[in-house]
Design goal:
- The complex is a heterodimer of chains A (about 140) and B (about 400).
- Chain A has 5 helices and 3 strands.
- Chain A has about 140 residues and is of the alpha+beta class.
- Chain A has a single domain (about 5-140), classed as Sufe protein. Chain: A, CATH 3.90.1010.10.
- In chain A, helix 2 runs parallel beside helix 5 and helix 3 (about 80-95) runs antiparallel to helix 5 (about 120-140).
- The longest helix of chain A is centred in the last third of the chain and has 19 residues, at about 120-140.
- Chain B folds into 2 domains: about 5-20 and about 285-395, Aspartate Aminotransferase, domain 1, CATH 3.90.1150; about 25-285, Type I PLP-dependent aspartate aminotransferase-like (Major domain) (Aspartate Aminotransferase, domain 2, 3-Layer(aba) Sandwich).
- Classes of the chains: A alpha+beta (about 140), B alpha/beta (about 400).
- The interface between A and B is medium-sized, with 19 and 16 residues.
Chain lengths: ~140, ~400
């Protein structure tokens, strides 16, 4: 993908992120990411019914990469089964770690394919997938 | 000034993260390399030549530190791993032993985590009460506000001399007098002040003073706790082991050595202490007043130039230290620091470990520029130039 187009997609999702704003609904799982090394402070909430991700929302303060990645992730996960979500997350991680991955599964998330060249941004790009993985693990408990 | 002394500056960087840590002059690096390559040996027992050299350097460091901060005696100088450990030693070695439920400790919301969390933990353990001295409209601590917060239950005032985000310089001489008059213990976090200005332990009537070597051109992992000797005698170690005991027996009897040695269990950071000695000698060869004035002149120039840039918000332009917190409007601070890194300008973004300051300034994260003696007008000009072009920030960082 052309680098200008990548930038445009990232910026668009940063400036106008989708699914921003938390909900007051006990049927959602919730997780917060707030660490010292990385200063982003995001909360994600996810609703799963019968193994299908029905909704994800988020809010908080974070950098351009983590905010945009959260927005894009959410869009690509809603409607998927938890099994497919895990597969997508694994492929995304493999892409960031420069391992083999299936590009077709990732859609717009391929805009982060060069992030590995900026090690100081890896955590930002991994933030939404870590949060969602954490919530998916909660489901198994 | 003295840029040639700092090997890191051989590369084209502008290092503005001195509140976090500082660059090391070659003489400090050499002193450490020399210890490891020419006279590696442990302290306390010195029958061979290398150990004599090491012992001498280690012991002399207490004298050097004592003179540097004007303590009463080298016996008041305890080597620690840094400010955090020093403050923890004060809280859990002294305060825990002498304070009781309901006793009040005054802090401010701009304190670093290391001067808040130990006190929170102490409250949890023995029921002491933390009161926060309100900050003024410039987020600074004033003597007036401090006086209003003192009550008959106030037993300790524990504050930074210079805070690490706002950079306000607290009037520790005046506060020291108040503490003396009212019989309050005065614990000073000197991490951001001792490296940059003359700090006088005696004159300011400080009871405990903590600082770290790595923020003052020295190595990481070493720092100092200075305590009035009668208080150190009454303070328990929080670490026990070799080097600090007189004897111990099967019937559980034991006796510890006197302060400061009783606080230095185990093999200390010998290379660190030797490096710290060199760092202090280096700073003294320039002069602390000269360093402070130099930083103030540079900050004045920087603020004047930054104020001309419309899309910047400055939070503490009037504080009397080389620390400046700002944000580029509508840009997350980490994006700003990553942008500056593209031009080899090293700053820090975040909450800078002062997580409660957000209650005061309504901003959780800032970009922090913190300067030191090796920063110069070229560094500032580079920063200004890059910030002026920051409308293109996302083209650069994405």
């Amino acid at each position: 993908m052309d680098s200008n187009l990548k930038r445009e997609i990232i910026l668009d999702n940063y400036e106008n992120p989708m699914h921003r704003g938390l909900v007051e609904d006990n049927s959602y799982l919730s997780t917060n990411y707030n660490s010292e090394s990385c200063i982003d402070n995001l909360t994600l909430m996810m609703k799963v019914e019968a193994g299908i991700i029905k909704d994800i929302v988020f809010d908080g303060e974070a950098c351009a990469i983590s905010t945009s990645a959260t927005s894009i992730f959410i869009r690509n996960l809603i409607g998927k089964s938890t099994k497919d979500a895990k597969k997508l997350i694994l492929n995304y991680k493999n892409m960031l770690e420069e391992k083999e991955y299936d590009k077709n599964l990732l859609n717009e998330l391929v805009v982060y394919e060069d992030i590995s060249k900026q090690p100081n941004r890896m955590n930002c790009a991994l933030l939404p997938s870590s949060c969602i993985s954490k919530m998916l693990e909660q489901l198994n408990k | 000034m003295n840029r040639d002394d700092f090997p890191m500056l051989d590369s084209d960087i502008s290092f503005f993260d001195n509140g976090a840590t500082t660059l090391k002059p070659k003489c400090v690096i050499d002193s450490i390399v020399e210890y490891y390559s020419k006279h590696t040996s442990n302290i306390h027992r010195g029958d061979y030549d290398a150990s004599v050299i090491t012992n001498k350097l280690y012991d002399e460091t207490r004298d050097v530190v004592c003179n540097f901060i004007n303590a009463n005696s080298p016996k008041e100088i305890v080597f620690t791993s840094g400010t955090t450990e020093s403050i923890n030693m004060v809280v859990f070695g002294y305060m825990k032993k002498h304070l009781k439920k309901g006793d009040e400790i005054l802090l401010s919301k701009s304190e670093h985590a290391s001067n808040v969390l130990p006190w929170i933990k102490l409250s949890e353990e023995i029921g002491t009460v933390i009161k926060y001295i309100p900050l003024n409209e410039e987020y600074e601590l004033t003597v007036d506000n401090l006086l209003k917060t003192i009550s008959s239950k106030t037993k300790v005032i524990s504050i930074a001399h210079v805070t690490n985000v706002i950079g306000d310089v607290r009037d520790i001489e005046e506060i020291g007098k108040i503490c003396k008059d009212k019989d309050i213990l005065f614990n000073v976090d000197g991490a951001q002040s001792v490296p940059h200005m003359k700090v006088d332990f005696k004159k300011s009537n400080i009871d405990f003073l903590s600082f770290s070597a790595h923020k003052m051109l020295g190595p990481t992992g070493v720092g100092v706790l200075v305590g009035k000797y009668n208080l150190l005698e009454d303070m328990d170690p929080i670490k026990f082991g070799g080097g600090m005991n007189q004897f111990f027996e099967e019937d559980n009897s034991y006796e510890l050595k006197n302060a400061p040695v009783k606080f230095e269990a185990g093999t200390p950071n010998i290379a660190g202490v030797i490096g710290m000695k060199k760092a202090i000698e280096y700073l003294e060869s320039i002069g602390m007043d000269k360093i402070h004035n130099y930083e103030m002149d540079l900050k004045k120039y920087m603020v004047e130039e930054l104020e001309k840039i419309p899309n910047l918000v400055l939070y503490n332009k009037n504080s009397n230290s080389g620390i400046l917190a700002f944000n580029i409007k509508d840009v997350f601070s980490q994006d700003s620091s990553i942008y500056l890194n593209h031009y080899n300008i090293y700053v820090r973004a975040g909450n800078h470990c002062t997580k409660m300051l957000k209650d005061e300034i309504n901003i959780r994260n800032t970009v922090r520029v913190s300067m030191y003696l090796y920063n110069d007008k070229n560094d500032v000009d580079k920063l200004i130039k890059v910030l002026k072009q920051s409308k293109d920030i996302f083209k650069v960082i994405i």
